[in-house]
Amino acid sequence: MPPKILLTRPWPEGAFAYLKARYDVTVNDSGVPLTKDQLIAAMGEYDALCPTVTDKLTAEVLSVADARVKMIANFGAGFEHIDLNAAKAAGIRVSNTPDVLTEATAEIALLLILMTSRRASEAERGLRNGDWNGWKPTQFLGQSLDGKTLGLAGFGRIGQATARKAKAALGMNIAYYSRNRVAPEIEAAFDARYVGSLDELAAQADVLSLHTPGGAGTHHMINAALLKRMKPTAILINTARGSVVNEIELAEALDARTIAAAGLDVYQKEPVVNPALLPLDNAVLLPHLGSATVETRNNMGLRAAYNLDRFFAGEDLLDGIA
Ligand code: 8YV
């Protein structure tokens, strides 16, 4: 009997076909995430779960008595929605899908940098609303990026890919802050200048882009005090996790124009977008598109599947995180 696997959301075709050929796969195709009670029930019914960012795998869910689930192959790189300590205590292995979404997420960071600096959403809304009555030398003026400083908060895989693309495509200078300074060869490869604190990075950046994990360690790292350090012309980009930014304090800074703009792909209470952000013309708001390409989502599914293969073959996980 092949192991029983639950996908908490449907997967793209290619990765799904791979999984179906090897396992007894059940898919939640209801269009909405499973409830806590459904997740608890699933713990007793399946050998493995493949959750996504929208499934809260709390200690309560993971520590149900007589659980059958022994492996959680997360469809996604970020894993702050899974209580890893509770998983370990319950003897459940956990994997994620790093690497395969790095370039796609960095593309969305670049998209947001361009959209905010050139006021693309605001201008397009204007055109569609009939507010464009001809070219003028002074309409919808944005900011040039060439030679400006991109400050990266967090310099892991996605931060580094964003640096590479922004330098090559946009001619930006790269500065970064992260808790652990990277090796000199890596700094040299990206021509990246290390800045000793987030405060200092915020003060220096023309564009401040967030590439940290979510979770308690970075909760509301971007708040009123930090936003005050930024230049009035500066732009904030978030493709990391919504919890990193205090959204109310960001909305206040955008409204008061103490910073110029923000480009967000992630929100604290997805899919709810803080209503304070919605009326702001200088906020570009995308619906968590970071990894949303056909290629990347298939590769994420395959990566999760390879972790399942390793687990059921009794081998080391490719991407074991618990
Ligand atoms: C994923 C992401 O689509 O992988 C991540 O960390 O933020 C997204 O791009 C999402 O996590 C799916 O679970």
Automatic annotation (TrEMBL):
Residue ranges annotated for the D-isomer specific 2-hydroxyacid dehydrogenase catalytic domain, each copy included: 5-317
InterPro entries in the cross-refs: D-isomer_2-hydroxyacid_DH (IPR050223), D-isomer_2_OHA_DH_cat_dom (IPR006139), D-isomer_DH_CS (IPR029753), D-isomer_DH_NAD-bd (IPR006140), NAD(P)-bd_dom_sf (IPR036291)
Keywords: Oxidoreductase
Domain D-isomer specific 2-hydroxyacid dehydrogenase NAD-binding stretches: 111-290
CDD domains associated with the record: GDH
UniProt keyword Membrane, yes or no: no
PROSITE patterns xrefs: D_2_HYDROXYACID_DH_3
Family the entry assigns: Belongs to the D-isomer specific 2-hydroxyacid dehydrogenase family.
Name by which UniProt lists this protein: D-glycerate dehydrogenase
Source species: Asticcacaulis aquaticus
